[in-house]
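Re-run requested by the PI after the first attempt was lost when the workstation crashed. Everything re-entered from the original request form. Ligand of interest: zinc ion.
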Amino acid sequence: MRNQIQWKGPSGRVAVFWSLVVLLAGGLAGCGGAEPGAESSERSGPLSVVATTGMIGDTAARIAGEHAEVTALMGPGIDPHLYKASEGDVRRLTQADLILYNGLHLEGKMGDVLVKLARQRPVVAVSETIPEDRLREPPEFLGQYDPHVWFDVSLWVETLGPIAEALTEVDPAHAEDYAANAQALRQELLALDQWVVDRIAEIPQEGRILVTAHDAFGYFGQRYGVEVVGIQGISTLAEAGLQDMERVVDLIVDREVKALFVESSVPRRAVEAVQAAVRERDREVAIGGELFSDAMGAAGTEEGTYPGMVRHNVDTIVEALK
Ligand SMILES: [Zn+2]
């Protein structure tokens, strides 16, 4: 426990988060003594890093390079809002040298597990390292920040330094590699961010409306100048109601929206119901394709990486709307 109190987070906010976790854990456990078997500074073999989402896992793997084996718990098609840790996950998490999660309530059903784990090992919420003034606080999400930060590539860049520093904390011997890998990835992602800007410019201004299954694309819309409409809210925990459907159908008809999009991690039924309701009003709206919103594509495919997922989504959106 004492080691953890002295752990200096990659940023002030992480350090604050960490101290809170330690305080909380100390309070719950009712003990302040050092844990037996605390990790020694010498280590052999690669680190074990466990991430919740694929986006975090892919990013951490790029920064860690050969020095870590990174596992992401949530594979293709998995909805992080609803995800509960399995027994196997808990085993993996308790054996990890470092745990990375999104935070901002994305992993809504893993909160307790993560708090417990944080008593024993470094647990870092990567999105909670982003400066608060860059986070969206949508009125309908009642005082909470929108967790879907990876859709603004320039914002996701903000997580690279903290991930590198978290790796360095557990493995200081490879600090230079982590910093260099993070820097290289930063350059790649800044170029990707510009590519998205250029690609979206191919859609005529009046056609830049993105209708999706749930409200995941707020940061995307804000960064790249696209009006975003989700049939469900920010979290998929709340089902879409009749009013939500009618609001979206009206908008599609009034604004002559050409296409709407399904998401790989959300059931298609709400999107298909909207499409059918539009048809009843003698209008056609296409399903423009499937977007990887809260989960990446299959491992080994282009969409199974963070940059590839971004490119897939943007290509799909631009081809359907331009
Ligand atoms: Zn979501």
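Saved to the shared folder this time. Residues 2-34+42-192 form a domain with the Rossmann fold fold (CATH 3.40.50.1980).
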